[in-house]
Amino acid sequence: MTTVQMLSDDELNRAWWKEAVVYQIYPRSFNDSDGDGIGDLRGTIERLDYVADLGVDVIWLNPVYDSPQKDNGYDISDYQAIYGEFGTMADWEALLAEVHDRDMRLVMDLVVNHTSDQHEWFQKSRQRDPEYEDYYIWRDGGTDEHGNRTPPNNWESFFGGSAWEYDAERGEYFLHLYDTSQPDLNWRNDAVRRDIFDTIEWWLEKGIDGFRMDVINLLSKVKGLPDGDPDSEWIGAEHFIDGPAMLSYLEAMDEEVLSDYDVMTVGEMPQLTVESAREYAGADGPLDMAFHFQHTKLDYDDGERWSVGDWSLPELKRLTDRWQNGLAADGWNTLYWENHDQPRSVSRYGDPENYRRESAKLLGTFILTLRGTPYIYQGQELGMTNADWETMDDLRDVDAINHARELLDRDGVEDYDDVKDIVGYRTRDNARTPMQWDDSHNAGFTDGDPWIQVNSNYEAVNAADQRADEDSVYSYYRRLIQLRSDRDVLVYGDYMGLLPDHESVFAYTRSLATEDRTERMLVVLHFDGDTETVDLPVDYVDATLVESNYDHDDADPGTVTLAPYEARVYELFD
Ligand code: GLC
């Protein structure tokens, strides 16, 4: 019998955002209501019943602000206006009301490390308008021995190439950690911080329920902008990730604005560690939780993102233990496989050809039974897969296009066919193919020409079929979301990892003792396409199989024989 510390209801530290399951909508690819091939807000409203039926509590909406769409809305030209092709402010207000009517909440994206170069602030800054002159990070460059201009330091853009662009109008370089069209704001400037805090307040006053904060630990850059280590994964990162003023900027944001509202905040934080997660999002930290990226790098070959590598299950266990245990007493995890930046999880960690349905359910079991807030990305609940990217022309993602060009410049690379496997596997376009609603033309996404190709498997993988099928990935997700909402143990329970070195079976228990009841669950996940018999090191007197992606009569979790990509969730009784 395991002893679990008895907790009072107070000690659970309940919060609605801990008990929530979040569903992420990428509006451009969700549903098009007007036939222009681009998803929009009215289209999103048309599909809200689908989202509510799934049983989720919160919708995170990717950026819908006015933008030239160089990086699909992460390049904002006006923080207080809606991008015309998505609709109007009235459409957005209708969306908020419709979300609230269905007892769900709406979280907006907050993109304040950079703006678009079309933002009025940048236009005025490049003209040295005294009020805006210092809104961005401008520097003189140098010259090389041939008299050519050189950038102020060796920092790299995440999308490839130098992080500096020379602006002829102003006669200086500006910093852009992402695309050249996304200049970084100068957070040292009090006026920038004031303007951003005002913007945040403006949206909160409209009644939204929180923010997902884009690359939020990049705001503070080290003074003097020194060169970075040329061998690091992202050159310069040690000088712009978790910079010296980072925590104080977020604390000010929290004190001055966020703390006046009952909202959730989740920071997207490249290179986040457990220690810094506790500082940013522990009990005393300014945010509620943060996204780390450690598991999204498991399939990098030799630390390189533009590669297709093997991944190891013991490594996933080590990092899951690290995060589950590291934030057990202080902090709160985010649980995700997919988002608009990640390829489809079945194509990375499952088997899209032979066991698509089984492996999609297995991956869903993982994020819905760990401690933290689960985030489901549109289509993940259908087991959508990566698409084929046959030619460069099919690509839409600025990141993939830039990196494909870099790969094409390498020695020995002839043409796109030589890099197609890597680019096709890694491109963010995989997440951005239209949502597969049904088996009609364009998967029911649009009557027009879709802005990006529809995945060719939409006749076999779509929401209409899956909603009518109890055995579908969708129905399985729906049941597990319900189970999680019914069971405090799945939200607040202690985590204990089992079988740390097993190559293909991941198992863990969740345990919770409150004044009302003691609950214990066991989750067993077989990450492989063969059959595996394993002894599970758990004590119990009785057990019930609560959920599985296979049919079973046998409910004994002692020695189990697991089918390909089998997932089981047991309740254990002492
Ligand atoms: C974040 C977003 C990504 C965007 C980048 C720059 O990583 O999720 O889509 O390209 O920030 O804003």
Task: Explain what this protein looks like in three dimensions.
With 574 residues, this protein is of the alpha/beta class. Among the domains are: 120-175, Oligo-1,6-glucosidase, Domain 2 (Oligo-1,6-glucosidase, domain 2, Alpha-Beta Complex), CATH 3.90.400.10; 190-332, no CATH class. Helix content is 28%, strand content 18%. The strands form six sheets. An eight-stranded parallel β-sheet has the order 14-13-12-6-3-2-16-15. Strands 1, 17, 18, 19, 21 and 23 form a six-stranded mixed β-sheet that branches. A three-stranded antiparallel β-sheet has the order 7-11-10, with no helix packed on it. Strand 10 (164-167) and strand 11 (172-175) form a beta hairpin. The longest helix has 16 residues, at 190-205. The chain is globular and about 75 Å long. It starts with 5 loop residues before the first strand and ends with a strand. The protein binds alpha-D-glucopyranose (GLC).
